[in-house]
Structures
1.
Amino acid sequence: MLVSATTECLQQARKYKDELANKIFGIRAFRSGIQTQKQTIPLGKTQIVGFGYGAKVVNGKILDRICVRVYVREKLLNSDLSRWEKIPSEVNGLPTDVIKVGEILPMQHRTLCGVSVGHYQVTGGTLGCLVQCDRNQRYILSNNHVLAHINQANNGDAILEPSLLEGGDINHPIARLTDFEPIQWQGQSNTMDAAIAKLIEEQDVDTKICEVGYVQETPMLAEIERRVCKYGSTTGLTQGIVEGLSEDVFDIWYDNNRRASFQEQIAIRGVCSSFSEPGDSGSLIVDEETKQPIALLFAGSSDITFANPISPILQRFNVRILGQASEEN
């Protein structure tokens, strides 16, 4: 069966599709809200997601006949269908064919949080989460030493995904450095190792974190013995227990010559294994049960991980964490 998409063929297809739409919904075509004479049926509330005109397929085999194609999320029993979802067996003598397609999504690459990222001159760390400012712009949140090259970067510098060490391409950055909290040296104390970078294409990154899922948008305070989890680009999903709430760490080596001290940090010990390893820097740490954000991972050893409380970071950059609610809006 050879049928070409000529103008005459497409006009004929439109007549059949419009007739089917009229039979089912009492309209001539799909619109953003399906208008009938008596009611509005919002798209997303019906199993039907589209109409077509083409081959009839049975058990994966294309039959030598043309049909009106009806695309549905799920194939249900006739008794489970609403009145306007019952599909006639034919339209003006042309048979119909019901085709299950599930949810139809754009075939675009969309990165999840928790993956490898880094300034174009840095070996890399982890994309902690997405945050948003009052102007509705979306940013990557991670560490200064991941995104800002330990104070050495300039705003506008390229941020790669994956990081340079893992094959990132400087000609195709995912974000541009926007702001960072400088790390202080020579005995001055720090409270955070954090930076944000504005996404070049906002839809390139989903707010979901690998294997963690969507997080809540409202942070919570750390509690002793609270079970937490994170997803980092090195160790993946790990679980931990909060052991310390107000930790002052005096001697963190950032390179061969510079040490930094941090106050009021959170200490976490891994459950069954180390909670983090190099490359996990920047991971968002959340409550294991509620998925509320607690801290931003930045340093540690094989025994203990240290993290910045998340609320002061959000206040510093005047942003909020994006979760599932943001994806639905």
Note: Confidence is low (pLDDT under 50) at residues 28-43.
2.
Amino acid sequence: MYSRFLQCLAITGLILFLLGGCNSRAEDPRVAFENKQYELAHELWLPMAEAGDAEAQNAIGTIYYLGLGVRRDDRRALKWFESAARQGHPGAQRNTGMMYQDGRGTGQDFLTAYMWFYAADKQGNKGADAYINNLVNKLTPNQQMKARRTAAQFIINPTDDFVPEREIPKANPRIENHRESG
């Protein structure tokens, strides 16, 4: 009888331990986010984002952009998206482009939006190409070329179709001097 009591006590302890584990806070911010525990996800991602983790920065940007568990804040969203975008995160590059295109958290800037969309596209982001196509008629060919050149510094893992823009050679100084004097 005493051993049966010990068995029941052990089983009860095991059940309580397992249930306690189910109720404990998740340590993975992705799990918290998927479980719609947005405040917890923010709390877990924030130190990672502050330490420079691009994935966490993009996630924090998304939380602020959508107002999930925090007050919606386009400026903070842009700050985090752009931090990750500068590190070459393709999703954050597309998100940053959207912010500039729509003027959310910043003034509307089609040139900067195009640059971020181009960087995202050349790293394989599936949605970026459609955004580029929407901006083509809003920029001159020279502006597009300038944006592509600027974007090249943020393309960390290029796709096979990425070909960097060639620099325009500087004019020969003698010719320029000749023009000035002649």
Note: The mean pLDDT is 84.
3.
Amino acid sequence: MITTLQLFFSGEFNFRRRISQPQISLNGTANFETGDGKTILYKENGQYRIAGKPQSFYQNRIFMLGDDCLLIFKEDHSPLHEFALSDQPTLPQKLTHMHQCANDQYFVTMTFCSLKNFSTFYQIIGPHKNYSIHTDYERA
């Protein structure tokens, strides 16, 4: 599965992200760059509109491929997600993760459909949060 993920996590992708609350659609590009060893640098940027005014955004992450897991870190190297990898390299492939952050629960699913596209789905639930984030990636 690591070799397959290395193929997914390389190159440039266009993406469309939809946030449920508030309802926002974002469009942008994501770039995966090979770092040292099994480290992959993820950089995204794009635009969205609020009240008719364009807004820019960016995000950087660090992906690390272990023998049996995918680790995703924030730009400051603090851990964000850990996905257990399946022994079956067939597609479609789903990776899931759940973590608690204060009183909020984050449920994350990454779905790999083909080498040309994949998606992520976040469901965030907590006393003051209840929204989802869906992102579709397509190789540029």
Note: The mean pLDDT is 91.
4.
Amino acid sequence: MKVEMDTTRTRSAPVPHPSSQLTAQSLGLAPASARLRERRVLVVGAGQRNLAEEPDLMGNGRAISMLLAREGAAVACADKDADSARATVERIQGEGGSAFPVTADVAQPADVASMVQTAHGRMGGLDALVFNVGISNTGTLREETADSWDRVMQVNVRAAMLSAQAALPLLSPGGSIVFISSTASRAPGARLPAYEVSKGAMAALCRAVALDGHAHGVRANIVCPGLVDTPLGRYASSLRPARAQRLTPFGRQATAWDIAYAVLFLVSGESAYVNAQELIVDGGLSSNIVLQPGQASSPAAVGGEK
């Protein structure tokens, strides 16, 4: 999928046909409106895999961090990859935003506790937690092993629980927790049962967190992306080429900014009465709403993944 990702916001955006639903927001080009002024947010998984040929292609964690900062939040950018977390912070600071890096391996419980405490201490409080971490293995059900299964569950489910557990006592009233899941939690088409089960378990975890946080005025919700054109997505397609060849809604995959705006909504006061919900951001793909060959009435704004 080719998209002109103008993260510097100094060039004019491409003008796609409206049928593609590729908006200024989808390109990360919309003006900010201070929706998160004075909010303090910890984004777990704020770094990303890099593509040398397309250094400006956004991953979900970086786009989320940058958008929340553009909207006025101070952002603690946590990642296992210290260099990648710093790169996200540099992008934010280069736009005049407030951010700092935190290095943490969420597979290690002590790192999770330290990460949350560091974010809270550095920012003088905590208003939101975004958990954007997930790993997979390549094992089908027949190939799965106990160790590989446990590794996926440690990172995708246990770390999410530990992060929420550590954050809940520190989150201010009116706070928000957002977990990034996947539509893989609803469909086994990728034949990656450990990943699919871990993302399915996140829904139950979210409801438990929402119940526990309710008395303190803290909400918890999930964003479920479908196919997203990110560096990690392209890597997944290199392993499973059929992923990039699927028909898509509106003739394109989501951008990381599409996911970031869903997170922004759930972090902001605009979603004050939204709790324990899963917001699916897949353009209708999970309902089999896709653009058939020759169906578009005008040239597509974006093509298939490279």
Note: The first strand starts at residue 40 and ends at 44.
